Amino acid sequence: MFLNLITNTKRILKYTLLAVLIFSPTLLPASTKIVVKDIRYWSSSDYTRVVIDLSDTVKFSKNRLSNPERLYFDLINTTISKDLKTSFSVEGGILKNVRSGQFNSDTVRVVLDVREIVDFNVSVLDNPPRLVIDIFGKEEAKKQDTMIAKKRVVIDPGHGGHDPGAIGLKGLYEKDVVLDIALKLKIILMKKKTYEVFTTRKTDVFIPLEERNAIANKKKADLFISIHANASPTRKVKGIETYLLNWTDDEEANKVAARENAISLEKMKEMKQQMDDLGVIMNDLERQNKRDESIKLAHHIQNSMVSNLNNVYKNVSDLGVKWAFFYVLFGAKMPSVLVEVSFISNPEEEKLLSKDFYRLQIAESIADAIDKYFISIPTVQKVSY
Ligand SMILES: [Zn+2]
To answer: How far apart are the first and last CA of the chain?
Structure first.
């Protein structure tokens, strides 16, 4: 009886093993497949951003078809989440429909039906892994009254919600400081009557990085300014620096961008290789022809902050205008910069950042810089070609 049991057990085990072997070609790869978790979008009349959320970094092919215009992406070694809505229509903008499905056993295909495509850009971002697709249509002609139209500024206070950003030794949170500066800046600009001002968040909420300039693109903003407080493991490092988007070999600048992107420095380097292969960032900068304008804006902000704050506080460190690959600037259609207003990791500057008056001075300095920037560019540039 006992022996029989063992034999039976062995037999059962044998058949179980056989079953696993038989089914393993389909079962095992399924467990290692990357899951297509969600598809999000922002769409306006001449632009859309679609984000495909994934469980891991994916290899993909991109394809374009005409009549009707559509893009499709085959995501290699992927499976589709059963929670994902596989087909939906989008009203009003350039994006018409989003369709996705398991094209074959290891490929998910995502199809985007679009009204028109002048250009498009695809990039892979990490933490969380996602594919970001920007599609550009023909820009609408600006109205005749553009010459007197208000300038539209989108201010982006970094972090929020579960993401506190950098934290000072005394417990000051970057997300709180930058929100306060952004709201102060909005009030100052609104008083001038020449600006329309939006903030990407008004309260302590989390907003994904790719959503922030998508909001600005959708609103057809003239400027996008992301506000942050800096941090360094070396507590004595202090000062102000302003960034624009580009790749750099500057290790310190890359460290700042890696921290703001919430990825490791190694991952930044991997991404550079990946994006270089796609030629993504140069396309992005050249198509929108915003690099020179972003440089001008960055210098106005940097100079204004350093000189205004130096009038009151001695020895303000001017760390200058730099560039690095910040997710939050990537894909912005307008001149866009990221300001690191001071170091929250430096005890002296954390103390200053905790003070209402210091934050107000930062906001006033940025507002002055925005004024100077718009005065410096000929209004005629705003008229559509
Ligand atoms: Zn930050």
So the answer is: 92
- CA 286–ligand 1 middle distance (angstroms): 26
Instruction: Name the strand (E) or helix (H) holding 20.
Output: helix 2-32
pLDDT computed for residue 267 by the predictor: 87
The predicted model gives 64-76 an average pLDDT of 94
Q: For the beta carbon of residue 82, count every other beta carbon within 10 angstroms.
A: 7
Report pLDDT digits (tens) over 125-178.
888 899 999 998 887 765 545 556 899 999 999 999 999 999 999 999 999 999
Ligand 1 centroid to 340 CA: how many Å? 8
Ligand 1 centre distance from Cα of residue 260 (Å): 5
Give distance in angstroms: CA of 261 to centre of ligand 1. Answer: 8
Residues constituting the chain? 385
Separation CA 336–CA 291 (nearest Å): 9
Burial class (CB in 10 A: 0-12, 13-18, 19+), 166: buried
pTM, entire model: 0.83
* Nearest by Cα to 340 from 214, 102, 178: 178
Query: What is the Å distance from ligand 1's center to 86 Cα?
Result: 35
174-191 vs 356-376: helix crossing angle, rounded to 10 = 50
- Please give the Cα distance from 235 to 344 (Å, whole number): 9
Q: How far is the CA of 375 from the centre of ligand 1 (A)?
A: 29
What's the 194 CA to ligand 1 centre distance in angstroms? 29
Domain boundaries, the chain: 33-136, 144-382
The CATH number, out of the four listed (1.10.10.10, 3.20.20.70, 2.60.40.3500, 3.50.50.60), of the domain defined by the range 33-136: 2.60.40.3500
Q: Are strands 34-43 and 47-54 parallel, antiparallel or unpaired?
A: antiparallel
Regarding beta strands 107-114 and 87-89, do their DSSP bridges make them parallel or antiparallel, or are they unpaired? unpaired
CATH architecture of the domain formed by 144-382: 3-Layer(aba) Sandwich (3.40)
- Residue by residue, DSSP assigns 242-254 as EEEE-----HHHH
